[in-house]
Amino acid sequence: MSLLPDPLREALRANAIAACAAEQDAVVIDHCPLVKFFNPMSAATWIASELYPDGDTLFGLADLGFGCPEVGCFSLREIAAIHLPFGLRIERDLCFVTRHPLSRWAQAARQCGSIIHAEQLLREAH
Q1: Region of residue 58 (left: phi > 0; alpha: psi -120 to 50; beta: else)
Q2: Is residue 25 over pLDDT 90?
Q3: pTM above 0.85, yes or no
Q4: What beta strand segments (E) does the chain contain?
């Protein structure tokens, strides 16, 4: 399974292009995350709303499972290169959909201490 199939890659690039264009006018766009990656053996989770022109740098929320999720950039190649025991790899949540913008995710994740718990909180909030 591809971590980032072409339609998702294109949507993330479109968000990045829109954010860059808005930045020229001193406007900040708070996109909803479009993709979620997770470590099936731990709490490490990443959600992303933008993909930069290099095709590798994602912008979103990263949570390595230590209780301090951070907004910023992370590398798709580095995530894809992670080899876990038993032949497992980082996976993409095929059912991930959200109507909450990245800032709301970050706020909830910081409040709860993880993206996983933030997802529960945001689901209950509708």
Answers
A1: beta
A2: no
A3: yes
A4: 35-38, 45-51, 57-63, 70-75, 91-92
